[in-house]
Amino acid sequence: MIQDIAPYTFYNTYRDIRPTKDSTVFFFSGQEVLADISEDRLRFPTYGQLTSEPATCIYLFSIDDQSFFLALDRPDPGLAGYKLENTQMFRTIGPRHLAYAGLTAHQLYKWYRNNVYCGRCGGNLVHSKEERMLHCPECGNMLYPKISPVVIIGVTDGDRLLLIKHANGTRNYALVAGFAEVGESIEQTVAREVMEETGLKVKNPRFYKSQPWALSESLLFGFYVELDGPQEPQVDMKEVVEATFFRREDIPVEPKNFALTNEMIIHFKNGGALPK
Length: 276
Description:
Elements: E1 10-11, E2 24-29, E3 32-35, E4 57-63, E5 66-71, E6 83-86, H1 96-114, E7 126-127, E8 134-135, E9 142-143, E10 148-157, E11 160-166, E12 176-179, H2 186-198, E13 202-213, E14 218-227, E15 240-247, H3 260-269
Parallel strand pairs: 2-5, 10-14
Antiparallel strand pairs: 1-4, 2-3, 3-6, 4-5, 7-8, 8-9, 10-11, 10-12, 11-15, 13-14
């Protein structure tokens, strides 16, 4: 999956440090990032390459000994070879550790961009020097990066796996998924989402694996569950337009190394051991 960047190691503890000339600097503009992909290989500018010093440059994280920073100014116009590229490229381009860095940086960029003023009193938010937190000097309000819990659910029935197609998404097959609601456990979210999207009752939820998912500022929790007795899926054609059980050998999904959903589908298709 995208976060599997070995032999590199990701360090996300916040540090109150300044960039060096070799530090990587991210410039984002909405869904675009300043990058060089001219040789089909991802490259971001370093602090030493900048033609002007950013007014605000925030430390984000490190990968091994390489530090990464976020510039909140407009992208530096004087960097030869770099241009604004759509962040969707992170799904396919390498090297993987830089694609993962770009995705994670974009999540933090959106958080900083959307939290300039205090939602309680309207005062200006200030960066903490101790941790990744914004605080309001006027009323003491504190804000941390938003991380929403999401479940990814592989509904099994013997050697069959339930795949769905969403009405507003791509036409690719996927697993049942959804955000946790206030007041429910992750296990309760699993049962509710399956019922809401397919009308099926399930049992025996078993945790498989988790994944940070910067695209929706989420943390994904993968579960396999069993169909609770003979049932046929029902869809409302508003959120889900198809829900079909496929036998292992007939699952129409090709392996990809980006997302938890695909890994869970391929794991079942290949007869991998399910958690107990």
